[in-house]
């Protein structure tokens, strides 16, 4: 593609190509390629179990990459103001959809988190995440410019409404992720440490309240803390199968298509795709995935290391933190380091809402790290 555009090319795509961070773009492409490979390895048994064509999920995953590319490039062409307006519109749309979800949403595994629209199942909370990150960065940066603007109050208002709507589903995993991102952004914005500590204590108290009020949270925590008491048909079944997959794979893996655990894992192509990577391709591919995420995070942070604009600093840091934390939560769940959360592995897991949400996040990162006079960080 580099040969297609000269530095003198003033077309929209020409300017886009020479001002985005192409290393970030390369990392995204490699992670997406790994996602296609693992979907091909993990999804056929899942599709056959529910009576679908063996390559049903493979075809859909490949199809999702078309809108992924379009959304990522489209968002990455936006300027700062356009991203702020887009995020506000996206937030309002998500709020409307979340209000409707308890009434017209599809119930899966005891929760209503999906809405069926024109043949597609959409999870509104996936799109709420990037919108909330940008709105929080916007409000906090505006308050820094003009102390009379109650930016923190607006940020907490956007967050509080989102949490309330997620509690109706309920989706505690998403709430925990959003809360962690908010605290991280507030810390970067200079909120006093004592208030950060108060928020931390409040978060722990909220988690304990969720443990007491929501049976599925109570059960998942107990099954994690007391695995010997868990029934094999509970959530521990998938975790046990997942750990077996890593044990079977060892360092080199059993080889492409040779894994057996995917035949028993209902979510082998989604929440537990990292387990399939461990069984069929071993520690090497798992380590490569971790390294790719780490380099993606470091590269993105380096691009804003000397950034003077608080909004850009908070927005990019929050978006990168979101992707990194979600990846850590997914991988930790498959390794039984934390209770299962039902979160996908960004760029890699199957899921239309997840992949499009990641496209928006990636596009925002590329847009906010663009340089008109390019200063490459090597």
Structure in words:
This protein is mostly helical and 378 residues long. The chain has one domain (12-83, 125-368). The protein is built from 13 helices and 3 strands, in the order H-H-H-H-E-E-E-H-H-H-H-H-H-H-H-H. It has helices at 12-19, 22-49, 56-76, 80-104, 124-145, 151-167, 172-188, 193-213, 215-225, 235-249, 273-303, 310-334, 352-368; strands at residues 106-108, 111-117, 120-122. The chain has a 3-stranded antiparallel β-sheet, covered by helices on one side. A hairpin with a 2-residue loop joins strand 1 and strand 2. Helix 10 (235-249) packs across helix 11 and helix 12 runs antiparallel to helix 13. The longest helix has 31 residues, at 273-303. The chain is globular and about 60 Å long. It starts with 11 loop residues before the first helix and ends in a 10-residue tail after the last helix.
Biggest sheet overview: 3 strands, antiparallel
Mean pLDDT: 85
Class computed from helices, strands and strand pairing: mainly alpha
Which residue ranges are poorly predicted, with pLDDT under 50 across at least 5 consecutive positions?
373-378
Tell me the strand percentage band: under 5%
Record the strand order, biggest sheet.
Answer: 1-2-3
Let me know the number of strands. Answer: 3
| Rg over alpha carbons | 21 Å
What's the domain count?
Answer: 1
The shape, in one word, is: globular
Indicate the percent of residues in helices: 55-70%
Order of helices and strands: HHHHEEEHHHHHHHHH
Please report the distance between the alpha carbons of the first and last residues.
20 Å
If helices are DSSP runs of H or I spanning 4 or more residues, what is the number of helices?
Answer: 13
């Amino acid at each position: 593609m580099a040969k297609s555009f000269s530095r003198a090319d003033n077309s929209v795509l020409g300017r886009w190509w020479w001002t985005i961070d192409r290393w970030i773009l390369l990392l995204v492409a490699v992670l997406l390629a790994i996602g296609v490979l693992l979907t091909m390895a993990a999804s056929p048994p899942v599709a056959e179990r529910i009576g679908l064509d063996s390559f049903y999920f493979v075809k859909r995953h490949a199809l999702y990459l078309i809108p992924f590319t379009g959304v990522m490039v489209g968002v990455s062409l936006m300027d700062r103001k356009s991203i702020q307006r887009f995020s506000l519109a996206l937030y309002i749309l998500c709020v409307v959809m979340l209000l409707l979800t308890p009434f017209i949403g599809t119930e899966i595994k005891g929760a209503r988190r999906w809405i069926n629209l024109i043949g597609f199942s959409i999870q509104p909370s996936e799109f709420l995440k990037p919108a909330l990150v940008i709105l929080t960065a916007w409000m906090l940066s505006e308050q820094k410019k003009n102390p009379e603007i109650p930016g923190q109050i607006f940020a907490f208002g956007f967050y509080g409404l989102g949490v309330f709507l997620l509690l109706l589903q309920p989706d505690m995993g998403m709430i925990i992720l959003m809360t962690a991102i908010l605290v991280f952004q507030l810390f970067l914005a200079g909120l006093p440490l004592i208030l950060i500590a108060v928020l931390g204590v409040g978060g722990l108290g909220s988690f304990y309240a969720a443990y007491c009020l929501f049976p599925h949270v109570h059960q998942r925590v107990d099954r994690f803390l007391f695995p010997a008491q868990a029934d094999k048909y509970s959530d521990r079944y998938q975790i046990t199968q997942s750990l077996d997959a890593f044990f079977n794979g060892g360092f080199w893996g059993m080889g492409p298509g040779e894994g057996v655990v995917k035949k028993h894992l209902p979510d082998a192509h989604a929440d537990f795709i990292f387990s399939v990577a461990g069984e069929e391709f071993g520690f090497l591919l798992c380590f490569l995935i971790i390294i790719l995420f780490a380099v993606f995070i470091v590269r993105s942070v380096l691009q804003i290391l000397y950034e003077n604009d608080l909004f850009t600093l908070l927005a990019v840091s929050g978006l990168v933190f979101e992707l990194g934390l979600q990846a850590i939560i997914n991988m930790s769940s498959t390794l039984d380091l934390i209770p299962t959360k039902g979160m996908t592995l960004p760029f890699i897991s199957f899921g239309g809402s997840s992949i499009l949400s990641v496209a928006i996040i990636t596009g925002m990162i590329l847009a906010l790290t663009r340089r008109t006079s390019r200063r490459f960080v090597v």
